[in-house]
Amino acid sequence: MATLLSACGASEPQVYETSRLSTDPVLSSVLYSFEQGCIRNAPEFSVASMRTSFAAYQPQLAPGMHFFASGEEGRKCEAAVLNYGTRRPKPSVGDINRLAEALARHTGGMLKPDIPGAGAGGAKVKVGRTTYNVSGYVSNKGRLTLMVYD
After folding, report:
1. 3-class secondary structure, 2
2. What is the phi-psi region of residue 83: left when phi exceeds 0, alpha when psi lies from -120 to 50, beta otherwise?
3. Residue 90's closest CA among 27, 149, 30?
4. For the packed helices 47-56 and 25-37, what is the interaxial angle rounded to 10 degrees?
5. What is the largest CA-CA distance in the chain?
6. Any idea what DSSP says for residue 102?
7. Are strands 130-138 and 123-127 parallel, antiparallel or unpaired?
8. Residues 6+ apart with CB under 8 A from 57
9. Which end of the chain has the lower number of beta carbons within 10 A, N or C?
10. What is the distance, to the nearest Å, from the Cα of residue 118 to the centroid of all Cα atoms in its chain?
11. Using CA atoms, how far apart are residues 146 and 88, in angstroms rounded to an integer?
12. How many angstroms separate the first and last alpha carbons of the chain?
C-alpha cells in the first residue's frame, strides 16, 4: 500500500507549470514593480520614464533588501534586489510568461512563452524585427534579477 501512495504522489502536476504564478508577497511586489517600470516602458525604455514608473511603484521589500533598476534606451531594462536570498522563491515560468504576455500586449508583439525544463532562455516577444527576451533568476549569492532585453 505504501508503494501505491508513493506512486500516486509522483503523478502530481509539476511545481513550475507555464501558468503558475508566485504567491510570495515580496516576489510578487518586485514582479509588479518590474512590469510597471520596465514592461510598460518598452520598447523605448526611456530612462526618464522608467525612473518615474519605478518611483511610483516601489516594491515592498523585507528588511536588508535593496532594489535597483537600470536600463539602456531602446534596448533593455533590468531590475535587481540585492540580499534577496537563495532560500526565497524564484520567479516561476508562469511569472516570466505573464511578464512576456504583458510585453506582447503592450507592444503588439508575438509571444513565444517559456517552457518548463527547456533550459536557459526565458520567454521571447518579437516586435517588428526585434526579439526581446524576458527572464528572471536568483543568483547563488542571493541576488534576484529580472530583465527584458533585445
Report:
1. helix
2. left
3. 27
4. 150
5. 63
6. H
7. antiparallel
8. 32, 33, 36, 37
9. N
10. 16
11. 15
12. 53
Listed in sequence order, the residues at least 6 apart from 36 whose beta carbon sits closer than 8 Å to its beta carbon are 53, 54, 56, 57
Length of the chain: 150
Contacts of 108 (CB under 8 A, 6+ apart): 127
Q: Which three cell numbers stand for residue 77?
A: 531594462
pLDDT tens for the chain, 150 residues: list them: 333 333 333 333 334 456 788 899 999 999 999 999 999 999 999 999 999 999 999 999 999 999 999 999 999 999 999 999 999 999 999 999 999 999 999 999 999 999 887 655 699 999 999 999 999 999 999 999 999 999
SS3 state of residue 96: helix
The whole-angstrom separation of Cα 73 and Cα 54 is 15
Is the pTM higher than 0.90? The answer reads: no
Omega prior to 89 cis, within 30 of 0: no
